[in-house]
Every structure is written in structure tokens, then in C-alpha cells.
Recover the amino acids of this structure.
């Protein structure tokens, strides 16, 4: 009951960088950009948030084959 879930939807800003720890555990690093719009006064303003993501183990290895930035 003390675990929070977050779902991020956006665009990759670069391909995942896959590396391995000395223990053999896979580590995947990537960056995701998420855009949104909000009204500021009478104008709509575009805002972008960037998220650095680190994956470990099988998730890092399997997703590196499927995720590529455009």
C-alpha cells in the first residue's frame, strides 16, 4: 500500500543508453520530454517537462530494442 505509480507519456529525446554494472545487471538510461499547454491570462502557453529515466535488469535490455528517438 505504500507504493506509488507514475505513468509518463511523451517523446524520447535520445535513444536509450544500455550499459552493465560489474554485477552483470543491465542499466538503461533515457530522457523523455512531455509537452502541455496552459492558459496564462488570455494566452495559451506551451510548456515542456523533461524526465531522466533509469531502468534496470530485463526492462532495460528488452526496451532498448523497441525504443528509438525520431
Amino acid at each position: 500500500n505504500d507504493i506509488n505509480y507514475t505513468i509518463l507519456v511523451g517523446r524520447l529525446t535520445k535513444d536509450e543508453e544500455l550499459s552493465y554494472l560489474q554485477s552483470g545487471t543491465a542499466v538503461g538510461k533515457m530522457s523523455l520530454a512531455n509537452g502541455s499547454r496552459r492558459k496564462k491570462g488570455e494566452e495559451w502557453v506551451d510548456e515542456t517537462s523533461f524526465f531522466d529515466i533509469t531502468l534496470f535488469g530485463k526492462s532495460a535490455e528488452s526496451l532498448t530494442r523497441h525504443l528509438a528517438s525520431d
Q: What stands out?
A: The chain is about 10% helix and 55% strand.
